[in-house]
User: Fold these one by one.
Assistant:
Number 1:
Amino acid sequence: MESLRIPILKIGEILIASIQVALHDASAVQFKDDLLQKIYDTKARGLIVDLTAVDVVDSFIGRLISDIAAMAGLMGTRVVITGLQPAVAITLVELGLELPQVLTALNLEKGLAMLQRQSGEPGDGTT
Amino acid sequence: MAQLRFAPKVAPIRSDLDIVIARTLARDTAKQLGFSAIDQARIATAVSELARNIFLYAGSGSVSVRELDRAGRKGIEIICEDEGPGIADISVVMQDGYSTSRGMGMGLPGARRLMDEFDIRSQEGVGTTITCRKWRH
């Protein structure tokens, strides 16, 4: 079965992937593999996974997000998850998946600012 | 039993794509029944966990979704059935963190927390039926 490919965009040293479709398991695993390869190829310092359009995060996707953060972290890339809908945040906690080791930000803009601050890029608007 | 507006629907589970179809069916039904956005997410997530269990442990099965009306109170009922290996000790699989697969062991206890009523019947070598319900507030 052909899986859906999520586009991964690059801005400076940061990669951005926004999930816009309901991921089935195979496409979610493909997404993880694509992200890690793209990090390696582009030497990105940060990665944002934007979940604004995602309305269900079950334990499989929750675990995958946690794995992506841990694996990218091993490669030296910080991961920020952005745009969790209130209903998704509530469901994740009730499900028992609080993802304590995963960095999050309210939206893409704040996530980008968080990574730019931490990478200390010149001209990123922070002191 | 009052008049029901929606016919029961069944989603067969044979692949990981069917997990998405089953949870979309449950969410759409919950939305039509007037459940809040947060309850729609709870119901869709519970169905995702239960449908994945069918796919992972039994290989195939089905998820049925129907409307409930108990003395005017609206609800949704999800029945997940498979003819898989069955569960030897239900109390063990309902513990947080118990997993025999790649999951985090949140599937069954997590789904139970997200729904209002949750019942498992299972017989080794025969299969498993999980019935769960959520009521509109």
Note: The helical segments of chain A are 25-42, 59-74, 86-95, 108-119.
Number 2:
Amino acid sequence: MPHISLSNLTIAYGNHQVLQDITVDIPDGQITAIIGPSGCGKTTLLKTLNRLVDLYEEIRVEGEVRIDGVNIYDPKADLLALRKKVGFLSQKPYPLPMSIHDNITFGPRIHRMNRKELLDQIRELEKHIPIDSLCPDGRQKGTRFRKNPEMDYLVEYYLRLAGLWDEVQERLHDPATQLSIGQQQRLALARALAVEPEVILADEPTSALDPISAQLIEKQFKILKNHYTIVVVTHILRQARRIADYVIFLYLGELVEHGPAKQFFNSPRDERTRAYISGEIS
Amino acid sequence: MIASITLVLCVLAGILIVIVMRGASSLNLAMFTQTPEGGYYLGKGGGIANAIVGSLYLAFGASLLSFLFGLPIAFALQKEYLGRRLARMTRLSLDILWGTPSIVYGAFGFIIMVYLGLRASLLGGIITLSLLMLPIMIRSIEEVIRMTPPELKEISYALGTTRIETTLTVVLRQALPGIVTGVLLAFGRGIGDAASILFTAGYTDYIPRSLFDPVASLPLAVFFQVATPIPEVQQRAYASALILLVIVLLVSIISRLLSQRVSRHIVR
């Protein structure tokens, strides 16, 4: 399990400082929610954890982000290995321009995993989350596993893990764009899981979804947190209450308060946290 | 507004009617299968097989050549590769090239060929024509590549891909319909161009046997044959014009159908 630890992290776009001097540890194997009003730097903080902020121009990152003891902003750090280790879900789901099946296999194909590696990956994961635990109605052994049974099994496993298999098993080779937006977000989850990350970052993953799809995503997160470290950005306070084990509250680029969810919501220490939770500020 | 639309439509209809009427009456099997007898400028018999085949050779050759160079350039214009400033300057120069009259390309090609001691030939025509097609192809493909949602690339990078992997898997697929359209647009422009190949490809009664033979073409078949006093020769010119028109029309229809077919997976 990776240990994510931020120390004195300061981020600026050009002259505009977005995050100031953030120091916090993100607990392993739990759901951590980053909350705060719009424009307080939640998404930027999230995207520093897999260095997606590198894509933005004129960005300056100071301080350290350590994952497994490695400072990921060290010039010698392996960017691709980091991004493989840290999965990402965007606010609006974007299917890749290919079939549902190929969306899932995209990661393993890019990382050129051979059959044995695929099988090992799934076996390892199945020790924690067996496939039968993901199919309450029992699993029908399909006859479609022919050409590349390992890859097909991987596709089925991750689609089940994302709670999408039952809806798409008959049309795996249709374009992913034909799925509803709620299904697309679960597809994005399955696609991110297929590269077997240790951390999942999610940027307001339910904000574009209808309530039922949002509920499905939350349900999957609760299943996944036993095996993954999940960091969710949300501006919905009730969502944070529902799913978070640990909460980080940002206000105007400043880390105001962080702590276990129970303590955070029941006895906030900072005046601003209290005001935000009670709805006085937003 | 209505008056101007009517005027434009009338002109278009006029062109079509003249070409189709004059051209259709001179079309026969021999036009497609035979080369001109007794010289294209004076001979009364034969057809324009030399020009049809020549034009197809030229246009396919030049499309292939400019595609091989154009696609990587179009990809490189993304900000991940060239950066914003250099990309903007490249775009500007391509736009200037796009606007350059094709006779300038012809003259440029001719000077180079004289310098290298080459005769007017299929190869010379293909190279000059591809210079003309290159900016059209690059700019129209690149325009579509730039429409790729940045979030889509972000998703791909987040899965641990390099920029070249993202370009070749995600961006390529997303831009595929645009690539098809861009190639065929350039093809249509290239096959109809007369000035760039006037000096560089030459004209001949025969179908070229190698890249170094001169080659006939449909636009030049019209140019050389329409102004003669001999009606049989004039007929060959009108037939050439009609065939050229049909080819361009077909290319545009194929381009629509193809880009519809390959846009199944496009993310909007």
Note: The mean pLDDT of chain A is 90.
